[in-house]
Design brief:
The protein is an alpha+beta fold and 68 residues long. The chain has one domain. The protein has 1 helix and 6 strands; from the N terminus they run αββββββ. The chain has a 3-stranded antiparallel beta sheet with strand order 2-1-6. Strands 4-3-5 form a 3-stranded antiparallel beta sheet, with no helix packed on it. It is globular and about 40 Å long.
Length: 68
């Protein structure tokens, strides 16, 4: 509970890193958060954007979920 309050003050949320039990703190005001598994994260509010179809990005991007 205390962590949630601190995150609210900082404007962050804890996201689970795909394929692991680790998490990372990222800004909370984005609808979609992706990771390529290489420590890079993509945050967007565009519901139709798929980073796996973007020719400017390399790798496989997975959707991230908020830590329970």
């Amino acid at each position: 509970m205390h962590e949630k309050q601190i995150n609210a003050i900082r404007g962050t949320e804890d996201y689970v890193v795909p394929g692991s039990n680790q998490y990372v703190q990222l800004p909370y005001n984005y609808e979609n958060v992706y990771s390529n598994g290489q420590g890079e994260y993509l945050l967007t509010n565009d519901q139709l954007y798929d980073p796996n179809t973007d020719p400017n990005l390399n790798g496989s991007w997975q959707s991230m979920k908020v830590r329970p």
